[in-house]
Amino acid sequence: MGKDILNVAVVGAGYWGQNLVRSFATAKRCNLKYVCDLDEKLLAVQKKRFPFIKTSTDFEEILGYSEVDAVVIATEVGSHFRIGQESLEAGKHTYIEKPLASKASDGKVLVELAKEKGLKLMVGHLLEYHPAVRFLKETIDKGRLGQPYYMYTQRVNLGIVRQDENAWWSLAPHDISIVCYLFGSEPVSVAAHGQCYLQRDIEDVVFATIKFTDGKMANIHCSWLDPHKIRKMTIVGSESMVTFDDMEATEKIRVYDKTVAIKQDITTSYAEVISLRFGDIVIPKVPGGEPLALECRHFIDCVLDDKPVRSDGIDGLRVLRVLEAGQKSLKSNGEPISPEDF
Ligand SMILES: NC(=O)c1ccc[n+]([C@@H]2O[C@H](COP(=O)([O-])OP(=O)(O)OC[C@H]3O[C@@H](n4cnc5c(N)ncnc54)[C@H](O)[C@@H]3O)[C@@H](O)[C@H]2O)c1
Known about the structure:
globular, Dihydrodipicolinate Reductase, domain 2, 342 residues, alpha/beta, Rossmann fold, six-stranded parallel beta sheet
């Protein structure tokens, strides 16, 4: 974009927004100029942490400043579309926290608007920037698992219980984005079961199965009503299997040299012989780095150096379509629904 430093404004300084404020305030090649929130008390907290920022309760005022190159939106999901649309209309590169919007049709408008205006649109699919997930992606792409067959993820904890969205919309965007990123294939159906125990019509726990064009399959278990804090995934391939446990401090990834092979045995009249292989379990060294810092740096670099964004609007739209298909399936007793319908 012909500049060395990106001038950024963050809109929404709540539970997650305050992390984005810290990250953009301390990032290289970035000047965090403004922080905006409706809550004056939250703004005072941020001003105390980072005295150089200016604060405002009016995001439209911030959009009017020509010095602001990019806007980072960390408000509640229901306002992502309106603020995102106004930000793009005002000519600002725009980063929106996950999920991109509350419906796929709105996500599509944002993607088209960014394209029309020649602006970067990024969605906060944080885990696509996790060094361990990058390692898994390389492992799969280099064929070390053989043919990837299926994977399952668990994102469960006690809390945070949301009132404006269910556990599927709150927790699953991360898993859907990782599953699609790692498999690199298009989801064709989503079948989801869930139950509402704490609040009317808001699912606390969801089990969803996503099928892909090429026969791969993923199961996502998400819940805010669980005694354990688990952030784990398992990927099973034709040659080996791998687990990623984000709760482990250092040994996050384990590669299991285990597989099942089916051979034809001519000595037993061409019978099929199933053999199990139990090989080594390897704990590879994975590069470090805070995912949020890496994610924010990626956004800054993509805007300044005009590079493609990994978790771009199209990625965000794909996740939204899976979310909507899953939501419809939840209300249709687990019927498989195509994301293409949205
Ligand atoms: N990437 C992650 O791991 C992660 C984790 C948690 C939340 N999130 C996402 O971050 C977003 C925010 O979630 P949260 O938990 O921080 O919510 P929150 O309710 O704690 O914070 C939202 C903030 O936005 C402010 N706000 C709302 N409308 C505004 C407006 N028009 N102008 C200025 N400020 C406004 C509110 O006052 C509030 O302080 C959501 O999209 C959520 O899904 C991401």
